């Protein structure tokens, strides 16, 4: 069954509901979240998106990202989706919000009001191969250098968050 997304305006005010596919075809703004999990070495856990994803397949992104569903709070959605994608859960703290819109070559439009969460975890994940191709831990300086040298390897929203939010200030 298709996920039913929560539609919002530019200030994250509820506007209604729509199926995930229709929202992404029409480019309707909807609520989303992005999770950034760090270890004690201040390394960020990245995921490489599965190669069959409907957009940005094979690109590197933050630890986990998705959408709250109909009837679900964002705080509960992050604790549903992190185990589904990465095989673990941890304490998560909401730290930042941003909005973006990007159109992909296949006609899909991501128009999201994104809630950003941070967490800590020390073990390697047990990724769901339906969602995640690979994972790796990386320091923020190394990540920023890679993003500068090879930006095409990373998702749009991940690069935007990394540019706008200073994680070093809270680690």
UniProtKB/TrEMBL annotation:
<dbReference type="InterPro" id="IPR000086">
    <property type="entry name" value="NUDIX_hydrolase_dom"/>
</dbReference>
<comment type="pathway">
    <text>Isoprenoid biosynthesis; dimethylallyl diphosphate biosynthesis; dimethylallyl diphosphate from isopentenyl diphosphate: step 1/1.</text>
</comment>
<feature type="active site">
    <location>
        <position position="112"/>
    </location>
</feature>
<keyword id="KW-0479">Metal-binding</keyword>
<feature type="domain" description="Nudix hydrolase">
    <location>
        <begin position="28"/>
        <end position="160"/>
    </location>
</feature>
<dbReference type="GO" id="GO:0005737">
    <property type="term" value="C:cytoplasm"/>
</dbReference>
<dbReference type="InterPro" id="IPR056375">
    <property type="entry name" value="Idi_bact"/>
</dbReference>
<dbReference type="GO" id="GO:0050992">
    <property type="term" value="P:dimethylallyl diphosphate biosynthetic process"/>
</dbReference>
<keyword id="KW-0464">Manganese</keyword>
<feature type="active site">
    <location>
        <position position="65"/>
    </location>
</feature>
<dbReference type="GO" id="GO:0009240">
    <property type="term" value="P:isopentenyl diphosphate biosynthetic process"/>
</dbReference>
<comment type="similarity">
    <text>Belongs to the IPP isomerase type 1 family.</text>
</comment>
<dbReference type="Pfam" id="PF00293">
    <property type="entry name" value="NUDIX"/>
</dbReference>
<keyword id="KW-0413">Isomerase</keyword>
<keyword id="KW-0963">Cytoplasm</keyword>
<keyword id="KW-0460">Magnesium</keyword>
<dbReference type="InterPro" id="IPR015797">
    <property type="entry name" value="NUDIX_hydrolase-like_dom_sf"/>
</dbReference>
<protein>
    <recommendedName>
        <fullName>Isopentenyl-diphosphate delta-isomerase</fullName>
        <ecNumber>5.3.3.2</ecNumber>
    </recommendedName>
</protein>
<keyword id="KW-0414">Isoprene biosynthesis</keyword>
<dbReference type="InterPro" id="IPR011876">
    <property type="entry name" value="IsopentenylPP_isomerase_typ1"/>
</dbReference>
<dbReference type="GO" id="GO:0046872">
    <property type="term" value="F:metal ion binding"/>
</dbReference>
<dbReference type="GO" id="GO:0004452">
    <property type="term" value="F:isopentenyl-diphosphate delta-isomerase activity"/>
</dbReference>
